[in-house]
Design a protein that fits this description.
Blueprint: E1 4-9, H1 17-24, E2 30-33, E3 42-45, E4 50-53, E5 66-69, H2 77-89, E6 98-100, H3 109-121, H4 134-142, H5 155-176, H6 184-191, H7 195-201, H8 205-214, E7 219-226, H9 248-251, E8 263-269, E9 272-274, H10 287-295, E10 308-310, E11 312-313, H11 314-324, E12 328-332, E13 342-350, E14 356-357, H12 364-368, E15 371-378, H13 395-408, E16 412-416, E17 424-426
Parallel strand pairs: 1-7, 1-8, 2-5, 2-7, 5-6, 8-12, 11-13, 12-16
Antiparallel strand pairs: 3-4, 9-10, 13-14, 13-15, 16-17
Helix pairs in contact: 3-4, 3-5
Bound molecules: guanosine-5'-diphosphate, 6-O-phosphoryl inosine monophosphate and magnesium ion.
Length: about 425
């Protein structure tokens, strides 16, 4: 029997989704990206190959996988082509294995220019975006002026629409943001030379996936970013420009959720990180934060920015479980906590007036004024990196994992103990 599973981040991104999706890819035939764009950076280390993927789904290193980019993804043709080249260099062929939706909005250089101009102008709240142009690309989609992959079928119309859009962006860039205008011919040159290659990858994604499910094939829907960066349910306005929650898998691929998705796996880091601005209630500003940052190599896979670090926030994760309907969690980077004397889990927040709250508020004004309440657990001061059996973990590590499981109220079915594919403990395999 085929199974389809959504795998996504339960915190603020970079939970280790890429590693886990690559690890589970042998159990499926298709991996589908359904939202976000190249703001995502999903790192995979097989043991012999290391790669950070931004657009192409994380199953691609497995020869049998068909990699799908659904309509919900904003697609930079330049980044896609670069990624295909990088894969070619490590002997991974993408030929007839990567399919894209004709409905993907194209992300072009004027989106990047607008994203950067806005962030630098400080006129609006500085989100600390990745500078990839994601917000403006989704704005174009919602405003119904986006150029989509399918527009490339009619180059005459495409070039004329592009002229209008470049004019629209240049008006804002020059008159409002006092920046240099974008050159129409440069934008055209980003797309025209590769138009046929892109169109060669176009397919009816909804139909492919529907047929796959009818033939009892299995699918992983690969989330990008994290639930708390969701544009509706996250820490608005410090969020990304899409819905990152599990419901997005349906919208961004053209497959209805009911009767089609069997399982939603939330990927959670054993502590918390966030890159960019916005609230992080359990943030650490001391040497423990610095230690976890170094040990966990917490630098953004897309921008190289240092990630902010905090203790595990069970209030935030419980909220994430609710908005995603997670079946279970996968706990990653447990090895990064190896050197600590004690480890904290945030179990509630205290408001300024002394009241305790147990529900994550998704209004940032409230979040800014909360004090985390911690449960303190003993550290283990032993190596867990690469441990492959739960019962080989120190008993304090086992206790930490079981305690998190109890507090969040759903099972932790997979534990990651290192960057490499095989450094994974499976307590319950969602595909078996
Ligand atoms: P993603 O965006 O959720 O795919 O996560 P990223 O790839 O941006 O960041 C996660 C980082 O942690 C990557 O560098 C991974 O190689 C690394 N990683 C994943 N799982 C583990 C783990 O269990 N232990 C350690 N030490 N590193 C891990
Ligand atoms: P993966 O898939 C972590 C953050 C940015 C910024 C906010 C908005 O690797 O987990 P955007 O460029 O999307 O408009 O920026 O969202 N952000 C991420 N943080 N991991 C990501 O992706 C992210 N993608 C966007 O840092 O705070
Ligand atoms: Mg990442």
């Amino acid at each position: 029997m085929g199974k389809s599973i959504v795998i996504l981040g339960a915190q603020w991104g970079d939970e280790g989704k890429g590693k886990i999706i690559d690890f589970l890819a042998p159990y499926v035939q298709y991996v589908v990206r359904y939202q976000g764009g190249h703001n995502a950076g999903h790192t995979i280390e097989t043991g012999s190959k290391t790669i950070t993927l931004h657009l192409i789904p994380s199953g691609i290193l497995h020869q049998h996988i068909t990699a799908i980019i659904g309509n919900g993804v904003v697609l930079s043709p330049v980044v896609l082509m670069k990624e295909i080249e990088i894969l070619k260099k490590i002997n991974v062929s993408t030929h007839r294995r990567v399919f894209i939706s004709a409905s993907c909005p194209l992300l072009l250089s004027y989106h990047v220019a607008m994203d950067v101009a806005r962030e630098n102008s400080k006129i609006f709240k500085v989100v600390g975006t990745t500078g990839c142009g994601i917000g403006p690309a989704y704005e174009d989609k919602i405003s119904r002026r986006a150029l989509r992959v399918g527009d490339l079928y009619n180059i005459k119309n495409f070039t004329s629409k592009l002229q209008d859009i470049v004019g629209y962006y240049n008006f804002q860039l020059v008159s409002y943001y006092k920046k240099e205008p974008i050159d129409y011919y440069e934008v055209l040159n980003e797309v025209l030379p590769i138009a046929n290659v892109l169109l060669g990858m176009v397919s009816d994604i909804s139909d492919i996936l529907d047929n796959a499910l009818r033939q009892e094939k299995s699918i992983i829907f690969e989330g990008a970013q994290g639930s708390l960066l969701d544009v509706d349910h996250g820490t608005y306005p410090y969020v990304t420009a899409t819905n990152t929650v599990s419901g997005s898998a349906s919208i961004g691929s053209g497959i209805g959720l009911a009767r089609r998705v069997n399982y939603v796996l939330g990927v959670v880091k054993a502590y918390t990180t966030r890159v960019g601005n916005g609230p992080l209630p359990t943030e650490l500003f001391d040497e423990i934060g610095a230690l976890l940052c170094t040990k966990g190599n917490e630098f953004g896979s897309t921008t190289g920015r240092q990630r902010r670090i905090g203790w595990f926030d069970a209030v935030a994760v419980r909220y994430s479980i609710r908005i995603n309907s997670f079946s279970a969690c996968c706990l990653t980077k447990i090895d990064v906590l190896d050197d600590l004397k004690e480890i904290k889990i945030c179990i509630a927040y205290r408001k300024k007036n002394g009241d305790l709250i147990y529900n994550f508020p998704n209004f940032i004004d409230e979040l800014d004024n909360l004090e985390p309440i911690y449960e303190i657990l003993p550290g283990w001061n032993k190596n867990t990196a690469g441990v492959l059996d739960f019962f080989q973990l120190p008993k304090e590590t086992q206790f930490y994992i079981k305690r998190i499981e109890k507090i969040i109220g759903i099972p932790i079915n997979i534990i990651s103990t290192g960057v490499k594919r095989f450094e994974t403990i499976v307590l319950c395999n969602p595909f078996l």
